């Protein structure tokens, strides 16, 4: 079961410029910066009420974020939902006909296990499931 809107992931070309912009916009500093080597991204997180904003910048040409920004403008990349049991939720969604991009949950940013749902089976939106580790 989806528990909460965990975060909105925003793809950006220049992480430092985007961090400065969102620091001013939100009136606060980010609470975390992290490099996720497995995804070839650098991330910055802001807490906004009970949810978060994640800025993502690719660190190599092979990064999904780098490839995404070659085709689309900066902006919302994905919507992430917190789940209590990611494996059970993955099984439930598969049985409902959703196409998952991951066979197993994988380590993600902010100390989470993550799995993505293909946009073609989710109304054109890339959806991320997150479970705290």
TrEMBL record:
The keyword Membrane does not apply. SUPFAM superfamilies: Glyoxalase/Bleomycin resistance protein/Dihydroxybiphenyl dioxygenase. Its EC number is 5.1.99.1. Belongs to the methylmalonyl-CoA epimerase family. This is Methylmalonyl-CoA epimerase. Signal peptide: none annotated. One of its GO terms (molecular function) is methylmalonyl-CoA epimerase activity. InterPro entries: Glyas_Bleomycin-R_OHBP_Dase, MeMalonyl-CoA_epimerase, MMCE/EMCE_epimerase, VOC_core. It comes from Hymenobacter taeanensis. Residues 4-132 form the VOC domain. It comes from the Bacteria. The keyword Metal-binding applies. Keywords: Isomerase, Metal-binding. PANTHER family: METHYLMALONYL-COA EPIMERASE (PTHR43048), METHYLMALONYL-COA EPIMERASE, MITOCHONDRIAL (PTHR43048:SF3). Pfam families: Glyoxalase_4. GO terms for biological process: L-methylmalonyl-CoA metabolic process. CDD domains: MMCE.
């Amino acid at each position: 079961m989806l528990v909460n809107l965990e975060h909105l992931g925003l793809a950006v070309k220049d992480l430092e410029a985007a961090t400065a912009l969102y620091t001013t916009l939100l009136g606060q500093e980010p609470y975390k910066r992290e490099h996720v080597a497995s995804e070839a991204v650098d991330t910055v997180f802001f807490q906004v009420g009970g949810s978060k904003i994640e800025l993502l910048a690719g660190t190599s040409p092979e990064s999904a974020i780098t490839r995404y920004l070659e085709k689309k403008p900066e902006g919302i990349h994905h919507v992430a939902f917190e789940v209590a049991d990611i494996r059970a939720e993955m099984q439930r969604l598969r049985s409902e006909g959703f196409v998952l991009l991951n066979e197993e949950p994988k380590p993600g940013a902010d100390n989470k296990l993550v799995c993505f749902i293909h946009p073609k089976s989710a109304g054109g939106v890339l959806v991320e499931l997150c479970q705290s580790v």
